[in-house]
Design goal:
Length: about 60
């Protein structure tokens, strides 16, 4: 779920999970961050964001 849709109890549990360096937590954070992509109006800025996002996503695989 997106952060805005979490209950108070789920928000507390998420805060606890974010303390750990788990692949599932990294995936969640990447997914949340990608939502910003849809807010860009400028194709140039959207491209810059996407390139950086992909760099971070692929860098976390190792």
């Amino acid at each position: 779920m997106r952060r805005g849709n979490l209950t108070d109890q789920q928000t507390v549990k998420l805060s606890e999970l974010l303390k750990y360096n788990l692949p599932s937590v990294r995936g969640y954070l990447l997914r949340e961050d990608f939502q910003r992509f849809w807010e860009y109006r400028s194709p140039a800025w959207a491209k810059k964001f996407l390139e950086e996002w992909c760099r971070r996503a692929l860098g976390w695989q190792s």
